[in-house]
Amino acid sequence: MSIQDAPAPAPTRRRRLGSVEVLAAVLIVVVLFRGPLVDLFDTPAARTWATIFVSIVVQALPFLVFGVLISAAIAVFVPTSFFLRALPRRPALAVPVAGVAGVALPGCECGSVPIAGGLVRRGVAPAAALTFLLSAPAVNPVVLVATAVAFPGRPEMVLARFVASVLTAVAVGWLWLRFGRAEWIRIPPRPDLTGVSRWTGFWLSVRHDAIHAGGFLVVGGLTAAFLNVTVPRQWLDAIAEQPVLAVLALALLAVLLSICSEADAFVAASLSQFSLTARLAFLVVGPMIDVKLFAMQAGTFGRGFALRFGPLVFTVAVLVSVAVGSLLL
Are the C-beta atoms of 286 and 259 separated by less than 8 Å? Predict the structure, then answer.
């Protein structure tokens, strides 16, 4: 065999830096610089930041896992024909049905994001899936009961939250149906499940979604904790007396604090210097768009989607909260 006929050497593959290597590097840095790091985090602000970050992640993680399990089950076990039968064929009618269907899912906003992604993968109209994403964490029985407990003697607050949340979700769904574009949503591909059993495919999907969504949850939690520490509390007292600014302030505060929807009613009840309408805006905006949700939505549907969807949801939620609050509160 001549030299020209000799097989070419196989190209060397460069090993990509994986999560294990990154974790090992972080641990080495922590061990080497343990003393300075302890001094750095031994301050009231740092302790507050760490407490808030851990509370956000720990509070959201069970619901994230629940959502990932539901999303994987939808992807593997539920046939596409089920959704074609369960939802109206016309997307304009499927949107309000999906909004009301949010009552059936007891969970928080962290679980609704992967579920909505799974619905889009299974052929559900994006507008209907996004409507479900917005309504489920705000109108499920757990959230409504928590709101009733946080506002004793004020059943109108529970009603106002339910009505405003459903109206916001449906309005956003219809707006996305009218003006949204398919190329704005870019869902990351799942692992190839061809030739594997259903249960193997289920656990592969769970692992994929948990790593993907969990990473963005951590990023959102870090950002929310930082904003919690840096936003001065004195600003709230100064704004509470101005009705318009009060609504906008609490809506922005809901975005920054990133509180789970099962617990946000108790925070809203403690903000007694604000009007009920302003606190309603806090309760409607928070479960639909906050810092951690923005990060998770960007990771699930793409950054371009999140940059368009977040401002739309915030604007509609504030306007609907003001309208419903003026009628019911």
Answer: yes
Q: Which two tokens stand for residue 162?
A: 């339910």
Residue 7's pLDDT is: 56
Concatenate the DSSP letters of all residues of 209-268 into one string: HHHHHHHHHHHHHHHHHHHHHHS-THHHHHHTTSHHHHHHHHHHHHHHH---TTTHHHHH
Stretch (H or E) spanning 79? none
3-state DSSP percent of the chain in helix, strand and coil, to 5: 75, 0, 25
Q: Identity (one letter) of the amino acid at 112?
A: S
Crossing angle of helices 109-121 and 291-301, in 10° steps, is 20
DSSP class of residue 140 equals S
As a whole number of angstroms, the distance between CA 320 and CA 308 comes to: 19
**Residue 171: both structure tokens together:** 């309005």
Q: What pLDDT is attached to residue 59? A: 67
Place of tokens 């509470």: 240
Q: For residues 130 and 300, give the distance between their C-alpha atoms in angstroms, rounded to a whole number.
A: 12
Has this prediction a pTM greater than 0.70? yes
> How far is CA 292 from each of CA 35, 220, 277, 288, 306, rounded to the nearest angstrom?
31, 4, 24, 11, 12
Average confidence (pLDDT) per 10 residues, the chain, 329 residues: 53 55 70 72 78 74 72 69 76 91 72 80 88 89 84 94 96 95 80 67 74 67 71 75 90 84 79 90 93 87 93 97 96
Render the burial of 292-306: b for 16+ CB within 10 Å, e for the rest. bbbbbbbbbbbeebb
**Three-point CA angle 125, 131, 134, nearest 5°:** 145
How far apart CA 317 and CA 329 sit, in angstroms, is 16
Write out the two tokens for 308.
């368009």
**What pLDDT sits at residue 143?**
82
Q: Where are the beta strands (DSSP E) in the chain?
A: none
